[in-house]
């Protein structure tokens, strides 16, 4: 896998991680256990006891420490073994790796790279479930596919016209009109005006509108998207530029999505979606989540099928199209960041 | 896999392939999509979009064309991309492989080799479900085993006395008497006279009979078998030769069977069986199909078990017996044809 | 796998192997068929026909012989082919390997090494289900893990305090006090005095006691354990030495356990447990078996999880603790025996 290590990866929904219930997962092929003490404070470390490799996620929380429940080694939050039952001396190598962890925007984020580089400023600005402006539903989905394929999917919304012809009912314009794509420091911004049948699904349209949709796709694989409906002609009057979202007539929603590479061929996908409080209610949120359940299932079907074909194809090649511009720019950025990491590492050593 | 590419492989029952419902399969490790337009005309091509490898079998038929439902690339029947949404220029390499396809004898056949060599004359003469002389049932079965093991099974009917002791109730003679085996241009012919308890299962025997059974096993893996009951002594009077089937007293049936290698360790097996209209009716056909369901399950059990043992045996060897003569002759023919193909290929390039 | 071949491996419970019902299994990655003739006499051989590798465990017993039910080859108890249907000459290489087999202590044992070295004296002295002194329950469990990991588990009972905190309710002493470990010719002996809450589960304690527990763990992976309750102070009066088990106040039980490596990542675990007739009855046996079902499930959970983490860890290392002494001594013995076998083999050839 060619992924950035110096980045915050979503490990779970914050509310799903209960105090003293360690949770084992994989991120970038590494087994990771995330846990909270009784006060709810987070810790994350290698999910693999230094003794005989039992997963610590089957362990027991004891105050600020986590005990391996195979032979009883006790670990502190830094990953150091602080007790070996019946043994006085604790060897210096008796430790596992720890990971910086943070709870923000309703997600638990894990930093997979150098501890010194871990800066919470780099956590993407997702909209949490408790955000006062939005009424959000949420969910998650496991993929039998490489995370990069999901990123690629999210970076090219031309697929909406085909994959989601039934769920979103997206107009052909999604495939035929090229969005404006801007490089960001750690991602790309994708902006579009869509005319025609382009309201939020489930929303009544009283007048001719056009819809603005904009998302940032940020390292390591986080999509932050908003959109809204404006009177016909707004796009033209702005020269195709971005509108002031607070002036939207209706249909303003926000979705935060995060793709976490677990292993080479598995990934976990976290998402929330819902209307702005001024443009919808719990009923609209539930409608949107019903559509999302269908649409994200469509994505999963095509991406897992794509993965199976790739697996059956030795030395496969892809043939990029102009619609791939966002995909290409983002993947190039990831490659550059990953290369820089390796260079720093080889200079340091 | 060592298989012949210049051959017609059965992809499906013709009646199961509905207009505008693309069907994805694997043949010789290659992903293949087979589809019909609204008029029922067949096309077959690589089931792998040139853009990002999504399977075209999840695509949408549009007249004579097939659209990839990931990002909308449109393919004609030759495999050429004729439209990329939102992109004017279509690169020369924007195409996937196509395969000659034919509908004949109730099966859809795909030619996996050179287009120029595809000749429908080479389609084995199976008896289709609509044949006026026979009342046929049909079915198919998926194997977790290499196709060659199924071919080997069908090329040596000595297994009838053991594998099918319960279903066919075949007499020991199947194992003890050697059939007459004749080389054909693209296969072998296997002929036998069986005496003793040798009626078609389910058929009443009013007088002492003996049964003649003959099948051709043809490249790439198609069995065409008929048989019938004759008065005792017929075999001797013919010097063991083949009788005139139209003179059979009773019990004339026909079975067509095709083995298609999907991947290295999976295969699909298609079959039909039933009585000649003069020697049976729908009730006998149903009896035969019940027996076939049991017998083909017995074959699957032993062959899949054999595959598992082979998988657990590094560098395994087999020890041929005299009963293997048909197996050996057919496999040698396949090896020769496959070798000739590679030679022609290396001369051509 | 690094295991001893010159050893008796448990293939099955003797009572589960019915006359003329061949049973196929794997031992040390080799397919083995074990079977009894109508008189109940045992035979064991390679579960792989020399003809085309079909498993003989799908075969038919015919007196003292076993017939492959694919094409009818007939094998005698030494693995030699004695009949090939329809073929007069039987080639010299027409044989499969046979294995010495023995029924003892309610188990069927298979010797996986040199025939000449097979000596029933080397069968570990398990307590069979028909032993007059014990009332035993029994069972077996399949593992998706390497046998060595189960051996390691059984060689270090410090895990009782953690893995089995809920089932056995083992006191912390199991982890904190080091047992006395003695090398045996083909294994290790592990002896412990446990004070505190240490009765047999389900047994009422009328007076302050201490419990003695002792087991031998023998090549290839057989645990033979007994224990009993003694008046407080017994341990001290014996200087920590082993007591006379016949003087136990109560709580004497016996458990025999055997770990059989099937393939690199699968194993079968056989076990019996129950009270001495003087110290319990069928009801106590059933209580113990209920606890064992829970406890052995806990072992399976942690060991299979450990295996998954190992599989996800290239070039993993373990960090032994002092509690690993029994593990280390036993594994060193196995390595030495396996090395000696290979040396003898290379000298012999």
Automatic annotation (TrEMBL), chains A, B, C:
InterPro entries: Cholesterol_7-desaturase (IPR050584), Rieske_2Fe-2S (IPR017941), Rieske_2Fe-2S_sf (IPR036922), VanA_C_cat (IPR044043). Keywords: 2Fe-2S, Iron, Iron-sulfur, Metal-binding, Oxidoreductase. The keyword Oxidoreductase applies. Residues 8-110 form the Rieske domain. Pfam families: Rieske (PF00355), VanA_C (PF19112). The keyword Oxidoreductase applies. Coiled coil: none annotated. GO terms for molecular function: 2 iron, 2 sulfur cluster binding; metal ion binding; oxidoreductase activity. It comes from the Bacteria. Gene3D superfamilies: Naphthalene 1,2-dioxygenase Alpha Subunit, Chain A, domain 1 (3.90.380.10), Rieske [2Fe-2S] iron-sulphur domain (2.102.10.10). PANTHER family: 3-KETOSTEROID-9-ALPHA-MONOOXYGENASE, OXYGENASE COMPONENT, IRON-SULFUR DOMAIN CONTAINING PROTEIN. This is (2Fe-2S)-binding protein. It comes from Sphingobium cupriresistens LL01.
């Amino acid at each position: 896998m060619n992924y950035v290590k110096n980045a915050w990866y979503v490990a779970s929904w914050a509310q799903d991680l209960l105090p003293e219930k360690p949770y084992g997962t994989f991120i970038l092929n590494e087994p990771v256990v995330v846990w909270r003490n009784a006060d709810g404070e987070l810790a994350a470390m290698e999910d693999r006891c230094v003794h005989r490799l039992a997963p610590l996620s089957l362990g027991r929380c004891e105050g600020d420490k986590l005990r391996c429940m195979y032979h009883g080694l006790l670990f502190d939050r830094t990953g150091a073994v602080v007790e070996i039952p019946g043994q006085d001396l604790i060897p210096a190598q008796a430790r596992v790796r720890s990971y910086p962890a943070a709870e923000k925007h309703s997600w638990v984020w894990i930093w997979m790279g150098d501890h010194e580089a871990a800066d919470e400023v780099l956590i993407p600005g997702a909209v949490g479930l408790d955000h006062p402006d939005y009424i959000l539903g949420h969910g998650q989905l496991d993929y039998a596919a490489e995370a990069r394929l999901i990123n690629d999917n999210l970076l090219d919304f031309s697929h909406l016209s085909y994959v989601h012809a039934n769920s979103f009912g997206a107009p052909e314009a999604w495939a035929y009109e090229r969005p404006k794509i801007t490089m960001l420091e750690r991602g790309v911004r994708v902006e579009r005006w869509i005319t025609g049948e382009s309201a939020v699904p489930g929303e009544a349209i009283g007048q001719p509108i056009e819809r603005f949709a904009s998302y940032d796709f940020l390292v390591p694989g986080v999509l932050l998207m908003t959109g809204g409906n404006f009177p016909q002609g707004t796009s033209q009057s702005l020269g195709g530029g971005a509108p002031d979202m607070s002036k939207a007539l209706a249909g303003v929603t926000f979705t935060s999505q995060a793709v976490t590479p677990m292993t080479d061929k598995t990934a976990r996908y976290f998402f929330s979606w819902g209307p702005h409080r001024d443009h919808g209610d719990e009923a609209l949120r539930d409608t949107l989540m019903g559509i999302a359940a269908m649409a994200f299932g469509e994505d999963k079907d095509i991406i897992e099928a794509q993965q199976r074909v790739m697996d059956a194809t030795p030395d496969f090649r892809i043939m990029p199209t102009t619609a791939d511009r966002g995909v290409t720019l983002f993947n190039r950025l990831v490659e550059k960041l990953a290369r820089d990491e390796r260079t720093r590492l080889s200079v340091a050593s």
